[in-house]
Write the structure tokens for this entry.
Amino acid sequence: MEMVRIFDTTLRDGEQSPGATLNLHEKLEIARQLELLGVDIIEAGFPISSQGDFESVQAIAGEITKSIVCGLARCMPRDIERAGEAVKRAAKPRIHVFCATSKIHRDHKLKKGKEDIIRISVESIKQALAYTRDVEFSPEDASRTELDFLEEITHAAIEAGATTINLPDTVGYATPSTYGLIFSHLIRKLPIIREKHIILSSHCHDDLGMAVANSLAAVENGARQVECTINGIGERAGNASLEEVVMALRTRQDYYKVGTRIDTTKIYPTSRMVSTLTGLMVQRNKAIVGENAFAHEAGIHQDGILKYRETYEIMDPATVGIPRSSLVLGKHSGRHAFKDRVTQLGYTLNDEQLEAAFARFKALADKKKEVFDEDIEALIDDQLNISHGLFTLEGLQVTSGTNAIPTATVTLKDSNGQKLQDASIGDGPVDAIYSAIQRLTGIRASLSDYRIRAVTKGKEALGEVQIELEHNGRKIRGRGLSTDILEASAMAYLAAINRLRNASSREKPAEAPAGV
């Protein structure tokens, strides 16, 4: 199978997004992740643009060994010199030079004729070859350049020694058919492309929302490198999205018949890293990595997914690093999805109980957009009259400090009114509390999630603790509220234990609790 090279320009074109400036440390973190992701070329920056950008490219070039590290340069001697200095320590260096070629750019930006532009481009490529044998040339605004001139300058660039020719849709003006035609036309008209094994590359912007479609059209017509960014960030409306291009080529390999070297399981973590470090949030409905990309709310879809995933999912979320699909419960959800979620939460309901709970769920869903697991637990607890549980917290005393061993003394009252008390030590005050509760209730479970947030403001703020326990493959949540966060922690843990104990009691006789 032929391979398509993935040229990632998140650190160069992507960073040009307003508000997305990255420092040296952040650029290095992203570059390391891109190398793990498996991108073939990392365009690390535009060295002439600032001292900071030069140092970033230089640092990345000195650390990255598996991916090609590329620096961008205009067709100007000082630009190329600076790029060469920045990438010279790279294990695999590349210099990417560009010169505008469209009539509108020739007349209004460069104010130069075709002959001058060809001469400048050839001289620049030859200068770049003094630093590295891997030189990429871009006729800027190629999609709006006359085809005969594009032929002429491409041929001249290859003769001068360029190994990759990038044909950018600089302003997102192209359509898939017209952009693909540029590649097939040049391959047909210029035998030197095949003779010298020249790589043709696409670089598309998303001004009309067609960056990914145009990139894929280029691949169909002979492009074997795609320039793109994580999350599609970049100048103006952004660039072609790496994750969309890669997953389109993978999912429709039957059609495109090419592959990439990307480790797709690292796509989602890379997306989150770039979003966090740039501060550019990913829209909910973004393909592949958006919050809704693998979320289903419609009852018909949820029913299909639960019966056979591929009915409504063309990709397994695990292939992009997302553990599983999400069935969002709301007013459009059906009984099948509701029953599945109730089972996941650890409840066993008969048909009559399930129907009553589903009716209450639908009434609640009409009042709020999304119904959370805590809402479902509350309505089922209330319906089954177990909201107060088997055990209640009667007393809590905690000793902790820099030179003290964290110790918790917990007093509980069971459903018969009997008081139970025990003490335990732990790695911290919360761990000590939970160890004591486990001993008193006779249930040992592992803590898989623990969250604290302030419900109200000020010194007397009400704190909320939410936890998740795992016991014999079952996950149970608990929630506690108090102005004392340790007390809230105990209440949350006890709420989860109560749910777990009630669920267990419906399946087998309860164990006798340990007490003092």
About this structure: The chain has 18 helices and 18 strands.
